[in-house]
Design brief:
Elements lengths: L8 H12 L5 H8 L3 H9 L26
Helix pairs in contact: 1-3, 2-3
Protein backbone atom coordinates (compact mmCIF):
# COMPACT_ATOMS: atom_id res chain seq x y z
CA UNK A 1 0.00 0.00 0.00
CA UNK A 2 1.40 3.39 -1.01
CA UNK A 3 0.76 6.71 0.67
CA UNK A 4 -0.54 9.52 -1.54
CA UNK A 5 2.04 12.02 -2.74
CA UNK A 6 2.32 15.22 -0.73
CA UNK A 7 2.97 17.32 -3.83
CA UNK A 8 1.74 17.19 -7.41
CA UNK A 9 4.21 17.12 -10.30
CA UNK A 10 3.18 20.67 -11.22
CA UNK A 11 3.92 21.86 -7.68
CA UNK A 12 7.36 20.24 -7.81
CA UNK A 13 8.17 21.95 -11.12
CA UNK A 14 7.05 25.28 -9.68
CA UNK A 15 9.07 24.76 -6.47
CA UNK A 16 12.20 24.02 -8.53
CA UNK A 17 11.65 27.11 -10.66
CA UNK A 18 11.12 29.37 -7.65
CA UNK A 19 14.11 27.97 -5.76
CA UNK A 20 16.41 28.29 -8.79
CA UNK A 21 15.77 32.05 -8.93
CA UNK A 22 16.98 32.45 -5.34
CA UNK A 23 13.61 33.88 -4.40
CA UNK A 24 12.88 31.41 -1.58
CA UNK A 25 14.64 29.12 0.85
CA UNK A 26 13.63 25.51 1.44
CA UNK A 27 11.90 26.57 4.67
CA UNK A 28 9.79 29.23 2.96
CA UNK A 29 8.90 26.84 0.12
CA UNK A 30 7.88 24.24 2.69
CA UNK A 31 5.63 26.74 4.45
CA UNK A 32 4.11 27.86 1.16
CA UNK A 33 3.22 24.31 0.08
CA UNK A 34 2.36 22.91 3.52
CA UNK A 35 5.12 20.29 3.70
CA UNK A 36 8.22 19.83 5.83
CA UNK A 37 11.53 21.44 4.96
CA UNK A 38 13.01 18.02 4.19
CA UNK A 39 10.20 17.20 1.74
CA UNK A 40 10.81 20.52 -0.05
CA UNK A 41 14.58 19.89 -0.14
CA UNK A 42 14.22 16.37 -1.52
CA UNK A 43 11.69 17.49 -4.15
CA UNK A 44 13.82 20.40 -5.38
CA UNK A 45 17.07 18.42 -5.47
CA UNK A 46 15.50 15.39 -7.15
CA UNK A 47 15.92 12.85 -4.36
CA UNK A 48 12.16 12.43 -4.54
CA UNK A 49 10.08 12.98 -7.66
CA UNK A 50 12.99 11.88 -9.92
CA UNK A 51 10.68 11.46 -12.93
CA UNK A 52 9.73 15.16 -12.87
CA UNK A 53 12.01 17.30 -15.04
CA UNK A 54 14.02 20.25 -13.80
CA UNK A 55 15.74 18.86 -10.72
CA UNK A 56 18.56 21.03 -9.46
CA UNK A 57 21.93 19.35 -9.13
CA UNK A 58 22.92 17.94 -5.81
CA UNK A 59 25.56 20.00 -4.05
CA UNK A 60 27.95 17.13 -3.40
CA UNK A 61 27.96 13.78 -5.12
CA UNK A 62 27.10 10.90 -2.83
CA UNK A 63 30.12 9.08 -1.47
CA UNK A 64 29.50 6.10 0.77
CA UNK A 65 31.32 6.29 4.05
CA UNK A 66 33.65 3.49 5.05
CA UNK A 67 32.15 1.06 7.48
CA UNK A 68 32.90 1.76 11.13
CA UNK A 69 31.94 -1.73 12.25
CA UNK A 70 34.64 -3.80 13.83
CA UNK A 71 35.27 -7.17 12.30
Amino acid sequence: KYLPAKLTNDQVVEMRRIYSTGECSFASLAARYGVSTMVAHKAVRGYSYPDVSGALPRIRPYKPRPSTRRR
